[in-house]
What we know:
The structure holds two protein chains of two kinds. By secondary structure, chain A is an alpha/beta fold. Chain A has eleven helices and eight strands. In chain A, helix 4 links the parallel strand 4 (about 110-115) and strand 5 (about 140-145). In chain A, helix 10 (about 230-285) packs antiparallel against helix 11 (about 305-345). Chain B folds into five domains: about 70-200, no CATH class; about 240-465, no CATH class; about 505-595 and about 605-610, no CATH class; about 620-735, no CATH class; about 810-915, no CATH class. Chain B is extended. Chains A and B meet through helix 10 of A and helix 38 of B.
Amino acid sequence: MAAVSFAAAAAKEKHQERTPLQRVQLEGHVLLKIAKHCRESDASLRNSEATVTGQLLGLDVGPTLEVTDCFPYPGNAGEEEHEAVGEGESYQLEMMRCLREVNVDSNTVGWYQSTSSGSFQVVEMIETFVSYMESLERCVCIVYDVSAAEAGALGLKAVRLSEAFVEAYREGSLSIEKIRAKGLSWRDMFVDIPITVHNSPMAAALAAEIAPPSAATTLDCDRLNLGVASLLEKNLSYLNDCLDDLMIEQGKLSMHQNQLRRQQQAIAQFKMQRRQENTVRRAAGDEPLTEEPPEGMFKPVPEPNQLDNMLLSNQMASYCQHINSATQQALSKLKLADGLQAAI
Amino acid sequence: MASKFWAASSSDEESEDVVTSSQEDTSTGSGSSSDSSSGSSSDSGRKKGASRFLMGSSDSESEDERRVVRSAKDKAQEELRAVCNDIKNKMHINDWAAIQTLFDKLNKQLERTQKATQTLGVPRAYIRLLCDLEDFLAKTLAEKPKLSPTNTRAFTRMKQTLRKHNASYGEQIQSFRANPIVETEAEDSASEMEMTDAAASERELNTDEEEEAKFKSVRTGVVQRPKDKILLMDPNDITYEMVQKKLQDIAVARGKTTRIDRQEQIEMLTYLAGVTRGPVQKVEVLINVITVTFDMNQPTQSAMSVPNWNRCAQTMFDIMALLEANQHITLTDTPPEDERDDEPGAGAVAQVWGNLGAFLERLDDEWNGNLKALDPHANEYMERLKDEAVLLALAQKVSEYLMARRELDKLAAVALNRIQHFYYKTDVVYSAMRNLALQRQKDSAGAAPAPNAGSDGDFKVDGEEVEGATGLIIVAIPSEFSLPESCAQLVDQLARVVYVHGNDNQKGQAMLCTVYFRCIHDDFYSARDTLLMSRIQEQTAQLDAKMQVLYNRTIAQLGLCAFRTGLINECHQALMDLYGTGRVKELLAQGIQQHRFQEKTPEQESAERRRQVPFHMHINLELLESTYLISAMLMEVPAMATLHPVDGRKRVVSKPLRRLMDNYDRQSFTGPPENVRDHVMAAVRALATGEWRRSYEYITALTCWSLLPQKDAVLCMLRLKLQQEALRTYLLAYGRFYSSLSITQLCNMFELPGCQVHAIVSRLIVDDGLPASHDQPTGTVVVHNVEPTALQNLAGTFSDKASLLVDLNERALALRTGALHTDEDENDGRRGPDGAQGGRRTRLGGRLGAAGGFGRGGRGGRGGRYGERERGNGFMPESGFAGGVFGRGRGRRQAAQRDDSNYTPLGSGFNRRRQ
Lengths: 344, 915
């Protein structure tokens, strides 16, 4: 994930008035850059399931966040993690400096990362977000879904954490009580921000110029592909993994409940004992002892953190959504094919 | 200590002595300078050593007694002196706190010394120290030196303790003060040498004698006087009142103090029994004999000694004979309020306090306890076991008596007691015991005149003789004792008595015993039906530990019985819960298991020890284990073969077996099988590939089959089962590699008749989804192999997992809200704790149940799951076994209750470990 070295760069950022972020305006070439980076690295890193990340640069104008440029972070620092931290930092700063010199917006507005079908909701993402938000109030993460791109769709999403969640997260471990008190649910963790793609007139003109005469492209052909099985398989296996994790979480919770109950029993027993002891003592004319157990005798049982639970829910929701849309399309395509065959 | 080294060089033998003497010296002659004292002491030591040898030949008793080299004794005394020394040293520096702790230590040391030397005498050094301390205390009190607060506190406390303490040694202290030899000892060591002559030894002798005398008087204090009076009287002069008074004395002394010598009391009582006036009094005396004998040992610590037990039994017989002869005497539970002072007329109705049923029970307990303490492989165990006949004869007499007196509740207890002696006996054992009893009866009838003379009532022996004779009491079995030919009849009859007259607990026990008995006699269905009718499995948690053990034993026996009858599924269901916990020994109370993650408190451990079942009642664990593992194997192996590697769906029938298999697979080298598990594992491996012959070989190699009387029939059954299951396994595992299979070939492979192969294949096709069909004309099975796609597999897994998660969630919620049992009966087996498998398992259970002729199969499967849940919750998982009959709601509710209460099951640490 992105390193946390932005404090310095972002500190220069003027403090914005708190108008909520309403949309993200993405420059066309930024989008292309992101797509290129993600797909290339995805091709090379297909097996390792690693995500690639990059820096978004741009301007914060009122309710819109204009993303005018970006640059990728150097490849995943799998092997030399320790060096990479320092290197990544210097690389970022160097990059920013260079970009400023060529008169590109050098304000950090967030980062982008690749994903495959919605598995971006992980703890690291939250951590990065929170560390970004310490210095940069309005930042986004643009998630580029590689698997969607393969199916011929543009899987692009701009997400940020909801205010309520960040607030709760900063207060420490997320207990059930706290979540309930704040009225949080897993749906409220991430906020999707609509993206508009903006092209400069020049770019638009160029696009018009190089557009092929035929309306049909290979991409359209891709879209007509009837086989959704692989996509479904992938999503299902992700879902299975999620379910396993969820069950572990469930196990943790029920263990916690058990511990709690046992402790309460122990406390009750202790009190009972004390009461009996006290009756004896009273009979003997001694001072009765307090019924409350002494400090530190019963340590409160630590409650499992609900963060993972929520994240898993989010992930599963996005997988389900993927499956839904895929099957919807598949069904309509099947219908179409059916009609076609009937016509022929 | 220079002296020590010095002396060490002189002679080895002396050295010990020297140390003591030198210490004595330093302790006493504390004022003298170290130089002189060491010199003199070492000197004296040597001289003393020399004189010691001289003295050995002299006739000075006391010296002899003290100086004989008895290392434990010497050491103890030495240590005592060392502590004395320390105290002296502390006295010099006025360190009262130290003195106090040392004083405590000294008292402990004194006890030890007394134990080591086996006298009650107090060493002189100790008395000397007491004197010194007293003096010093007085001195300090008079001087009032400045002391630190801790010291002051210690001083005042010391003052009090010493005052109290010295009171008990007042006499010795005085005698010591009157004659403080020590002073001379200390001042002049040479004089001490001379004192080894008559004067000193006499003095010491005197004190010793005094002490001894005192000790004796203390010991016999209670009984001494009456002994003088009554024992020496002419028996004919003893009146009713005298005996009555004596009896009251003893009764009053009972339980009052531990210092009474019970042996003497018994002597007294046996004597009294001989001189009583009238049967009423005699019964009273005899009952007192029993109670006092019972008092002689702590039941929690060790069992009664055999002579005592015999005496009790004999006394019981005497009482019975007396009661029979004198019908007007009745026994009551409550002691009569008004004391009888005058002699009741002959034949007048009289009430005597006593409870024969309770005595019998106690006797039975003691017998059991005695057996537990014995080594089961030793001869004594067998000898002791023979006494069961006595117990049974006694029980029979008591129950006859109670029957005649219509004391029905006690009758039930006695009947239950008798059942408990029979229920675990197979026919062979029973007839052996019967023969033995009859033989013994004959013997005792032949020898009747001699030993029975005593029991017939005229105790013309005085106390001493009785004491000597106690070891020789051989309890005669009365001639009217009889055991019926058929044990079943007897058990049935006794059980009926309990059912009619007993309370719930007794009825339950009797029921379990009959079930056990029927299981032993291969009557599975009636045993099972009786068990299920009783609904006892619903209340297992409320039962006491003893009954839980009985219940477990019954269940184990039920499983064994099912196995012998060839009902593999039932066998597995019954035994699954016992083995699922991995604590079979503990559950059956056949030994104490150590658990890795739990420590038992001493109370728990002793309670468990008390629960243990005597060895002759044990269920052979090896047989039980092989039975369980084989039944699990027969079910698990085909189930494993159905398991598709892709979807990872696991229908685990038997977790313990799976665990064993995993362990077995992990071994890098597997040698030839040695124990039960190895054999079964090897058999599993063979069966998994359809090689039933090899599997059968492994299983027949087990030694425990020889324990079964119907070994051949069982092995035959096993062979058939192995053939069938091997066929199933083979088809499930390798069927998809064939396009068609010839029925005749299958018949040859598995040595099964064609129709059976046909039946098995058909069932596989219908139930387990073997993609095949019969082709009648060619006599083949045609396999249509269709592999599910990856997506289908995934979807299947997903649905399994999802429903499992939902179930877990519901359970968690229910636990939290405490409404564990609400939505039970609406949703069928779908939402078991193991989720989607629930539904499937239910179906499976139904099928297997139907196959086994278990009419309730459909729900039986659910029951199986129950077991698993219960297992997590505590002791009695067996309710799962019967879950097939009783709804799930109850099972769950029980689990909830158990969670809430502080119920500590058999091994209470279990929950902790489990969760």
